């Protein structure tokens, strides 16, 4: 005798907005009649924070797991104790997606390194004393309702040996820097999450051959509160826009589709912050790297 | 039946018949000869079809030919506004695969192929720690094998191996797809596209591109088909009809996922390729996204620094676009071409020059790698542009202003249609002249300009001469003989079409000078010279003119080896006779040139030459012999034939043709100037015939010679010919070799000898000999001497025919005569002694026939016996003197015999 539980959501994308109703079915598939002590469905949403070892002191290290912040937690009973007949049984359910009355507002789903915002549906079937209870869970995603599109804030910059701040300490600056002049432009530093990030870069002049031009999306996660916090920048994705020694004086488009789950609207709460930055990197043939950094604001907008 | 029947023939009164007659211009038996030229592809196909129509199965040759015609139809479709780009590309695809090959070793990097050297960091580490014992190392490597992401590098692959590997990857994608391992399929596809960033072994790159773009296309189709199935089930719905509103959410979600996956590929080139291969799938999300995406991709390709890689990405983009939008996609060709032109200088940047230099490619070879791609972009652009002339002007201006513009110029010249090119020819030549010192694809450009000019119909308004001079200046400075000849070919045709023969001659002289100056033996360029000459022969309006140029023959004989000369002579003669319209050649210079060529051809024949080769040579020489005419100068004509005989002694069929020609000459000769020419002709025949191999052919020619001599009143010669023929009869074999088969001579011998017997009727008897009917008696004696099988139909048919002749000879006046020849009827005036001789012969033959009848009966050949009996009966009734009792009784006996053995079918008897 075997039985299985699955949760199927009506919406294939599993994306919901605050105030919407999550509808779906719990499918019970059993090869024999199944006696149980009650079937419950719970919805949980929480923010998990983690302090990076780099920024906390040795004494704090043991407590680098901060208590998760609960965003939503509701439970309903799908079926009272009884018997489920052999075969496939579908039990429909509907749950409203609303935050706790006095708790924090719902946040967008986000998968990061030190900050994670997760929403799950969990279904459990209690069974008699000798049988193991059955469990299943299913993630779903929360998104803000799209706002009006913010006005574009274009930004442009020129990169030459003179504009470089010798990054990476005193020894970073090269003695005989090749002569180069780059021009980069982002169409807007305020970006909608659904739209690709666009801009252009032009190599006006470059004495050394170029190996690659890359676009790096970086998240900046800040955890903690007044007494101590950690701030970490990690790479989300790196996209190559130029390969090899590209033609001089030509606009090369920058185009990056923002990955789902790993990005969310720029967020700031008392306990943590999620920010994003964009790096434009030019790698020369000898692996010498020139980068320019742009802080960007991500929004859920039309 | 040992009864002796004496034969007596009835002398008939000459009857006067008035047969209805009408005047005609043609001989009713003359075979009409159609000169069908099979040069046109279509007619060739039709003739093939004609021959293969009785077979149900399509002739394999025909099938190929049909394929060709179908392919040829491709360009025609261009005229209608719907070009089938994938189809045109397919043709191009094959051409690329055939052209860009390599003998270099190739490298493939993939994690999905067995074998090869692992380049994962793990095994690199293993190599460093080399003191690990072998066993441990092996085990660790086995562990590594399970790791899918370990990338292996297979080096030293030959081209064929490489192609197989690519096909393996293609299969691997399908396999993974079918087993629900879609991500694995995706990964393989990415790896495939990564291979395209590798430009080692550049000369294979275009082919590599074609192979891999196929793989990517297949992958794209897999994704598309699955999404389609997910959206619409098994309904066959066309791309154009898909509306994203009708797509269910789940399918749209899957599609979106693919897109996100694709967008997060780190490297630019695989990301571009994958997006292109998935471009079709945007239709499930929103169709309106596709076109902006194409425009965006067009710009993103700028990020590819390597010009060779970049242009082929553009080609792939255009291919995908054209398969989706057809005609509407032409603007993308245009955009991409423009992008390419903007980046043109990348091609010749020092960095690339260094790269192809290290791969030991010449600049020529390097630039030619771009040609198919640029051609393809230009092809779409041309269909997009309404005013081609302005486009060409723009392009040319660009060529003029940019440095090293040869690639662009080359593609323009080959891509545009002739009319535009011809209009701009002067400008193009100016550009070429200005850059000719360092131009790379010079010969290719020049020759394609030449090709275009060949299509010029009437360009008096064009300064043809100036163009040609300009070309000549450039061409003579070319270093490579091969290139020079390549360029020469179309330009010579142009000269033939447009310029005077004087000018052509100058070019030919210059060519010879160049060939001598280049210091290499002309044999090395034999085939190229040959095609130059072929081209010239085909294009010059009057073929004869060529032979009148003093530089033509030296050029033909430039190559000195016998093989080269033979091949050359054969081409020249073949094309000459194809093109030569007039029936007769009279010019002495041409005759002597052709004679020389024929001699070369003849001299090439030796013991090991194959029969077909001989046949072809003989045919050409025969054509020559038939075509030469000296009109009224018959003596000269005969001299020519004598000369030919001595020159072409090795070829029997040429000798036969000569004999026929001489016979014709003899008959044509005017009698008023005496008989000496006719005698000379007869002597020619008599002397020539014995050198033939085949006795049957000899016999035929003797007969013909005899008849011709008789016709021209040379009785002595006629007699000599016929006499030799009689002596030849025993030598005629039963079978002759023809077309590789043994064919029985039976029917031909009957025909020949019947003809011979008819001729004997009018041949005056030789008064010097002491036997009457000298030749006939000889013939009968010969017949007796041969050991015939009595039941052989050939034997008794001949006996019957002889009997016919003998009967006719007894007549007072024969059925036909030749004017001026006294036949035996007038010679003997039915002299008794003569008649007696004849009748005794007839009696003997009759007797022999009865013997045959008996042996037929013994051999149980009743049907043959019956027929023979009736034949003989008929002859007695018609020809014999029935008043004579022995004849009557013979007739009665024969009739009785016939009645006795007749079968149910007695039609023949009744007809008598």
Automatic annotation (TrEMBL), chain A:
It is found in: Endosome. The keyword Protein biosynthesis does not apply. GO terms for cellular component: endosome. Keywords: Endosome. The keyword Coiled coil does not apply. One of its GO terms (biological process) is intracellular protein transport. PANTHER family: VACUOLAR PROTEIN SORTING 26 RELATED. Component of the commander complex that is essential for endosomal recycling of transmembrane cargos; the commander complex is composed of the CCC subcomplex and the retriever subcomplex. Component of the retriever complex, which is a heterotrimeric complex related to retromer cargo-selective complex (CSC) and essential for retromer-independent retrieval and recycling of numerous cargos such as integrin alpha-5/beta-1 (ITGA5:ITGB1). The recruitment of the retriever complex to the endosomal membrane involves CCC and WASH complexes. Component of the commander complex that is essential for endosomal recycling of transmembrane cargos; the commander complex is composed of the CCC subcomplex and the retriever subcomplex. Component of the heterotrimeric retriever complex consisting of VPS26C, VPS29 and VPS35L; within the complex interacts with VPS35L. Interacts with SNX17 (via C-terminus); the interaction is direct and associates SNX17 with the retriever complex. Interacts with SNX31; the interaction is direct. Belongs to the VPS26 family. This is Vacuolar protein sorting-associated protein 26C.
From TrEMBL, chain B:
The keyword Transport applies. This is VPS35 endosomal protein-sorting factor-like isoform X3. The lineage of its organism: Eukaryota, Metazoa, Ecdysozoa, Arthropoda, Hexapoda. It is found in: Endosome. Belongs to the VPS35L family. InterPro entries: VPS35L. Keywords: Endosome, Protein transport, Transport. The gene is LOC112052647. Its main location: other.
